[in-house]
Specification:
127 residues, mainly alpha
């Protein structure tokens, strides 16, 4: 019975994390749409939009570290490791495979999140 509560807690945590990511993306979308509306209104009046509006559009959401993915995959990995150790036997092997995949993915996301921003950019003086 305790395993059901653990799975429910992990599932709830994953839902909350995914919901917060969706909310952040929706707010980012609204911010970009408002910036585009300001540019459109300025161009219709024959004026140039202020530079900060263009700077707002140039912010890249993909440059954010994937901390929410680290949390989600860690929670899923922990849940499947707990299931593996609690079930035991031959049928538990499938849980170990899934838990290993989630654990490796969580570690990969953690490495990406800890890398300094712009580490993958090409140098300006590169040929």
């Amino acid at each position: 019975m305790g395993t059901i509560y653990l799975f429910a807690a992990v599932f709830g945590g994953v839902l909350v994390a995914m919901g917060s990511v969706a909310w952040a993306q929706w707010l980012d979308h609204r911010r970009r749409m408002k910036a585009l509306d300001v540019i459109k209104a300025a161009l219709e009046r024959g004026m140039e939009a202020p530079a900060p509006v263009y700077a707002e559009l140039s912010k890249d959401a993909a440059k954010r570290p994937p901390w929410s993915e680290v949390i989600i995959f860690t929670a899923l990995g922990v849940a499947f490791w707990v299931a593996y150790f609690r079930i035991g036997g031959d049928s538990a092997d499938r849980y170990a495979v899934i838990a290993t995949a989630f654990t490796v993915t969580a570690l990969g996301c953690l490495v990406v999140a800890l890398l300094p921003r712009g580490a993958g950019k090409a140098r300006d003086d590169a040929p």
